[in-house]
Design a protein that fits this description.
mainly alpha; hpI Integrase, Chain A; 2 domains; 3 strands; 52% helix; 4% strand; elongated
């Protein structure tokens, strides 16, 4: 509206053409908005003119052919298997919290869980004999995820020798990972544990709980796992979301080739 008032004060919404909108895009380009911001602005314009069509204010939308800038997808940060092992080696297993943290991070990495899925994991979600856990993900959608023997062994150790000594607060009896106060562990605590371990391990990457999920998916793709299977385990709505890990895999291959090919090491 500000653009129209400045440059085309006599125009009504019904007078706006594709050319007018293209002029507007050139105008906002001078503000150096990111591709994401520009896409959001264009999306708003398209919805506005769609509304005008639905209300019979105009016959066709001038924004239909308006092109949205391509958004570059950032490759997520992930850890190597060696970096994960190094971080876990700094956990103090002489304390109940240490045993809990080890079981917690191993489970997150073994199953590719979101932090919200990890902290809400229940005893009733464990299907030990079948080697699966059930998880409620985004959109309240349930999915079954295979869980590794190492994670199951650590969960069993934590439940048997440490969790059963905690005075559990009412209504939290079914929650697996608990604080010393007997309440469910928070996402902030998971973030703190990962940050503390990364500092001790000397890992300089910007890490978060989601890094373990990215690492899980990356290592599966690197190992040749079927992309559809990875999609199912991650609970992605669209396969295009999962496909980013194929780009990571290509990046991984390129780095290895450049690092180890004899012709690339010549001075």
């Amino acid at each position: 509206m500000a653009f129209i008032e400045m440059f085309h004060p006599s125009k009504k919404p019904s007078d706006v053409t594709l050319q007018t909108l293209q002029e507007f895009l050139k105008y906002i380009a001078d503000f150096h908005f990111t591709e994401t911001t520009q896409s959001r602005i264009i999306s708003g314009i398209k919805h506005f003119f769609k509304f005008l069509v639905l209300e019979n204010y105009i016959q066709t939308s001038p924004a239909e052919l308006l092109e949205t800038p391509r958004i570059k997808r950032k490759l997520p940060v992930f850890l190597s298997v060696e970096e994960i092992d190094l971080m876990l080696s700094f956990i103090d297993r002489s304390t109940p919290e240490g045993e809990r943290n080890l079981a917690m991070l191993e489970t997150m990495y073994s199953c590719g869980l979101r932090v919200s899925e990890l902290i809400s994991l229940k005893l009733s979600d464990l299907h030990i004999n079948d080697g699966f856990i059930s998880v409620i993900g985004k959109g309240d959608k349930q999915r079954l995820i295979p869980i590794g023997k190492s994670a199951l062994r650590l969960i069993d150790n934590y439940l048997t020798h440490h969790r059963n000594h905690i005075k559990i607060k009412k209504n939290n009896e079914d929650m697996i990972f608990l604080s010393k106060r007997g309440t469910p562990i928070t996402r902030q605590m998971v973030f703190y544990v990962i940050k503390d371990l990364s500092e001790k391990a000397g890992i300089k990457k910007p890490l978060s709980p989601h890094t373990f999920r990215h690492s899980f998916a990356t290592h599966l793709v690197e190992g040749g796992a079927d992309l559809r299977a990875v999609q199912e385990m991650l609970g992605h709505e669209s396969i295009t979301t999962t496909e980013i890990y194929t780009h990571l895999d290509q990046h991984f291959l390129r780095e290895n080739i450049l690092s180890y090919h004899p012709r690339n090491n010549l001075k």
